[in-house]
Amino acid sequence: MKLEIGNIFIKDIQFAAEAKIADGVLYVDKAALEKVVLADETIKSVTFDIAKPGESVRITPVKDVIEPRVKVEGRGGIFPGVIAKVDTVGSGKTHVLKGMAVVTAGKIVGFQEGVIDMSGPGAAYTPFSQTLNLVMVCEPVDGLKQHDYEKAVRLAGLRVAVALGELGRNVTPDETKVYETCGIKEGIEKYPDLPRVAYVQMLQSQGLLHDTYVYGVDAKKTLSTILCPTETMDGAIISGNCVSACDKNPTYVHENNPVVEDLFAQHGKTLNFVCQIITNENVYLADKQRSSDWTAKMCRMLDLDGVIVSQEGFGNPDTDLIMNCKKIEAEGVKTVIITDEYAGQDGKSQSLADADASADAVVTGGNANEVVILPKMDKVIGTLDYINKIAGASAETLQPDGSLKVELQVITGATNETGFLKLSAR
Amino acid sequence: MTGRYTVITNNPLVLENLKGRVPVAYRDVSYVELLREVRDQIHKGGKLLTHPLSGSVKPGETPYKSVMLLSGKGDVDERSLDLIENAIQACSKFQRKGPYRPEVDKDFQLVDWTLLEGAIASAGE
Questions:
Q1: Is there a contact between B53 and B84 (Cβ–Cβ < 8 Å)?
Q2: Which residues of B fall within a CB distance of 8 Å from A315?
Q3: Cβ–Cβ of A284/B123 closer than 8 Å?
Q4: A326 contact residues in B (CB cutoff 8 A)
Q5: CA separation, residue A291 to residues A194, A202, A209, A224, B104 (Å)
Q6: Are A297 and A330 in contact (CB under 8 A)?
Q7: Whose CA, among A109, A302, B39, B95, lies 20 to 30 Å from A134?
Q8: Are A411 and A118 in contact (CB under 8 A)?
């Protein structure tokens, strides 16, 4: 499968009467986007705001971050099975509004998560301090249940991203990248001496605000399966989770998964990137057994030499991570696992809630219990009303001078387990 | 699945939602005390059916936890014991928060319920 990604570099976002992209500036027609959002009658109102890198702005509580894209050639549309009709995506040509993001924010539950600081020390911990953000805060109609509100905001964000992506359909991209994978036999013939490597991606699949959707299907109701990695670039996987925002994958991360990107960069050179395997992280232990059995079985059937496994979350998923690692290694396939750590504020506690000797090649996204001080910002988009209630926050979180004393857990993407990070120890 | 499972919970919403559907052992105790009770049951031969650290709402943050357990009288299930011991140990890494306003408390109950709901869908009633 071959996908051409055409990046249109967005250098600025402005509100205007006419929506268009001209000279790298995205002009947003607020009234038109309001209609896109309010097409869902469960949303009472929406406000749009723009947050730019370097500004004294704090966005919270963040629900999802989405990159606008449009399918210009090939099968299907962006976010298949959710916004576009169900069709296999990942081939043809896709245009991307690069350098910007749609950020959805709003209180769904009273302990809402997710902080993005556009400047100051907190900005270093989130990759979304570097994007031009169109932030939308949705208010529900009175009495709307949390499940319905979550779904409404999730879909509204995707609809807005698709509407913006459409503006890039006829724009000539500033940069074009080509991603291509082979069939099984073709790959063996083409790269007989290169190790066969796959990416095993674990998806959050536990419940309200802990879910992920694949082609519109709730991931906790899926069996482990195979994707062509380019499918994720067309929005085959979307996020429905944001609790403990540091190590959850917003939709933007699925669209730009760095493990996929890096494996493609080495494809045909040092390795043969065979496929992406997706598996879930259910609460029910028998589901874990089944999913990890299937993942290991597929690794064997595909005659892989090695896999990279990325986790999403902490605690319950630690068990899935170790089960996957142990069983895949037992099939004779080498593993490298990517996780993050909850090692306590002093960093001295055991990092994961599960372990095994076969997990001997581990990459970490950092210690989510690490404490940081986030100075007061001039402007807050969203609300600070719930900041004391989010993971990693405490009663002393909001300091008298307006700064926040928090653990990294609260910052969107701070310890991301696909490595979609700005900081490293290198 | 063989045998009948019990849900051990400190979440009143779980008790309410499962009334007449599956056996529920409701305990008015803290999160970590509930995990210790589960550990006691495992020492008596019980077997975990759900992960004790389900959900990304951390121990100390949410007051609520629900665990599905298969009762038994045989040997101690080593895997269950391992999971519960690690879960109890993990609790010490998180600072205790709260008390919460009633509406926030209800949201914690709801999320704990949805975490269990998926497991009940898998296990059957």
A1: no
A2: 51, 53-56, 58, 87, 90
A3: yes
A4: none
A5: 28, 10, 21, 6, 34
A6: no
A7: A109
A8: no
